[in-house]
Hints:
flat, 85 residues
Amino acid sequence: MGLGRFTDGMCDLITSKLSASAAHESMTTARRCGGSDAAAVGLVDAAVSESELFDEAMRRGQALAPKAGATRVLIKAELYGFRHG
């Protein structure tokens, strides 16, 4: 039987982005949700149509590119509790 376990980082990420009730439902039911539902509970930053996806991804990527690298990794580690090593 393949019983899975959330890693500490994944658990930290889910519980930091979602309300307690949304995190509980997400982690215990593994229910799949569409973009609009995911945006409504804060799981994703935005939901766009398939035809808008590439342009939106490029826009967001270009805005974040100057912030890429070690500093961004450290910020995300502090925000979401990721621990390396």
